[in-house]
Amino acid sequence: MGATVGRRVDSTQTYGRAPADLGSRRERRQPFAEPGSAGRERQAARGVSTAEVTAPWEAVPRRRLISARWRNPIGIVGAGIVGLCILTAVFGRFIWTTDPNAPDAERLLGPSWDHPFGTDDLGRDTLARVIHGAQVSLQVGAVAISIALVAGTLIGLLAGYYRGIVDLLLMRLVDVMFAFPGLVLAIVIAGLLGATRRNAMIAIGIIITPAFARVVRAAVLEVMGFPFIESARALGAGGFRIMVRHLIPNIVAPLIVLTTVYFSTAILSEATLSFLGLGTQPPEAAWGNMLSTARSYIDQSVWMSVFPGAAIMLIVLGFNFLGDGLRDVLDPRIGGGVGDAVVNK
Amino acid sequence: MVATLFAVSIVIFLMVRLLPGNIIDIMFGGDAQSTPEQRAQAAKQLGLDGSYPEQYWSWMSGVLQGDFGNSLLSQRPISEIFADALPITVELIVLGLLIATVVGVPLGVISAVRRNSASDYASRVGGLIGISVPNFWLATLLLIFFSRVFNWVPPLQYVSFFDDPWKNIQEFFMPAIAISVFTLAITMRMVRATMLEVLNLDYVRTARAKGVPRRHVLRKHALRNALIPVVTVVGFEVGVLIGGAAVVEIIFGLPGVGYILLNAIFQRDYPVIQNATLLIAAVFVVVNMLVDVVYGWLDPRISVS
Prior knowledge:
The complex is a heterodimer. Chain A has helices at residues 25-29, 37-45, 50-54, 62-70, 73-95, 126-162, 164-178, 182-193, 197-224, 227-234, 239-250, 252-276, 287-294, 303-330, and strands spanning 5-6, 59-60. Chain A is mainly α. Chain A has a two-stranded antiparallel sheet. In chain A, helix 6 packs parallel to helix 14, helix 8 packs across helix 9 (197-224) and helix 12 (252-276) runs parallel beside helix 13 (287-294). The two termini of chain A are 41 Å apart. Chain B has 12 helices and no strands. In chain B, helix 8 crosses helix 10 and helix 10 packs antiparallel against helix 12 (270-298).
């Protein structure tokens, strides 16, 4: 039984059916345990609709998630763009085999058949460099988001489950992190650690973590309100077990939305940091540092500035579209404010 | 708020001491001939001698009296550096916020009121595009546009608004537009979402059913309520704008606080790094507190703790 995505509803309607609950074998043997899929079939056979019985917390089967997406063109477009970017990052250099670091061509050319994106100030092919930049951006984004996901979920779980002093301390820490403007903190952390790509990943991961922590904590608090947690505890489930087998599967929906939405933030932050000279260093190609070099040549070549920036915008747009679409399907209550404003620029 | 500022200063203090490794070692690089006296003297100069609590105390007691120490490189008092740099950054942020709200709020209202799917869709897509444009790219494109099409570049030497308003506007309008786009899009989305909610509320529909003209309903009921969440967004957005300001200050050569901070990072001017970060964070915290107060005042149901 895979993780299902739960639609959050007003938690004042409680004491209905619990969310899809992996449960332990011991719990499944109990007469009051929640029926699995077989039980639901029996209910359907009895003429009781799943919707009625599983209110207020309705597990949204994967089937519905996919079919709901077809009605959401923005999300589809976003998914398409993101897919394209991932494919470019992974396979692009096998299709367009020009070496991104070889200064072979004439400098500062505009687009042509040989060089669809032109060449840069040293005669390197811009298309090859943009493709390499896609790799860098996605890599930094993925690592930074992973850091934030793991750290933020851990903090949110601990704070939401244990409450009390643990909650107080952890949330104070999160509040202090929120007291810094996102980009400034990333600049300071990356600057103090040293200007490398690895440190940029760490810095960006750190600044996104508080947002994850807060949302995870809120989601955990909501799930904790359901009686199945109490019954699990009564059956002897310890903290770790409850967190892993009960809490995490039920907060997957907001996590998916957060990950997508903040991926765009992470990519934009990486571009900004490398633009400022704090991330990936030249001569390695990253979209940000390509734009930074291009700035000195705007008199001689407009094209150098156009393509890396357009690439950044396209991938960020793709993730934002995707995030918007996913949010509509999975969890409209996260709303339009989350993820938009925390750390950008 | 004081507790937050206190915690923030501790975090900054620890970051500057723990993240870069041993600062004295970095400073003396490969200089194998540096004597312990030289290193000790450098440590004293940087304020790195003594235990952490001592260092923290000497830093904070100075700050609370307005003495931020001196820059490592230029030996200028940092408070002077701040006094020069702060007006620039403040002006940038104020202009950015102004553009974002003056353009964003009406756009949000219009797109909420015109609920037909075409313009609704266009505004939703437009909003998403607005939050996707990198501000440094937009700034570069604006520079290219003006230099190619109008053969014009912004003046290089900073003048205050009060000394020469026209030149000041010329210097500031491009960076202000560049940093405002993101906030504009956010504001537009926010206003639109809230207006849609409010317009569907029972009392608004009652007013319309009673025959109250639409404009009146908009102005008296919907708009006022829709503006409240915008105020909360402003708090957050100032943080975004501060970051954006740092970037455009580098691009346009405006020596504001962001510019100072970035240069200090590259030149390893640790006193400036430490104090500038504190300044920026403190401003952000104060602004957010003010926003909370204003929010509590606007919405009588919220009490400000």
